[in-house]
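Hallway conversation turned thread

IA: we were arguing at lunch whether anyone had actually written out 6-phosphogluconolactonase end to end. Turns out nobody had. So, for the record, here is the sequence (237 residues) and right after it the structure tokens. Reply here if something looks off.
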Amino acid sequence: MAIFNLDLPTQVTGLSLGSPEQLAGELAITVANALRAAIDARGAAVLVVSGGRSPIAFFERLRGQTLDWSKVTISLADERFVPVSHADSNEGLVRHHLLKGEAASARFLGLYHSAPNLDEAARLAHVALAELGAIDVLVLGMGEDGHTASLFPGSPNLEQALSTGCERRCLPMQAPSVPRQRLTLTLPLLASAQLTLLAVQGQAKLATLAAALAGEDEAAMPIRAFLRRPLEIHWCP
Ligand SMILES: O=C1O[C@H](COP(=O)(O)O)[C@@H](O)[C@H](O)[C@H]1O
């Protein structure tokens, strides 16, 4: 399928939106529909979201969607090893922009734990994630280096985190930018989502997608692991 001048593999669909506001609104509707369907089917829904700066508008649109938030569990694809009060905390971002109003009744399962070191924090997150349940919707972001979640090219543990046989739900990662210490969900857990959406903005990230589609090496560009699986890309300039 060709969209944004990219040749997407058949299992990948692409939606081109006119602006960041349109992308946020469209993504919120898509996610809310999938959560409602999960609640109708089994009485509960699980949503995993990404952090960074770009999801803010999406979070604010999503929290306004009408659905039974008390039946929704929300977690993170990745986290920075900083306390929730820190400006770089992904949990802080979700608490500030998504878990407000009706959406405040959702259950939130965070990845950050106060621990003496990153390895121990990742182990505690791995244990806590046993309570997550099957993921209905995963919303990924992507960096210009081709990282997604906190699966960073060149990080120790990346090979293990990208392995389909990885038994850890969460592993410690090192990012090239501060805060360097990260926690990431691993590929088997991320790839188990019923619906995976990738939200990307701007020409630079489109060029990253084109580069990712042109090669094979997942360790060089971890987003490739998701371009081989069913994926819905939402892009805007
Ligand atoms: O560090 C991170 O980067 C990616 C991309 O963030 P963005 O602000 O450029 O969209 C994000 O998906 C990930 O969750 C975050 O921790």
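OS: looked through it. The helical segments are 20-42, 56-62, 90-97, 118-128, 158-162, 187-190, 203-213, 224-227.
IA: good, adding that to the notes. Residues 138 and 236 are 19 Å apart (CA to CA).
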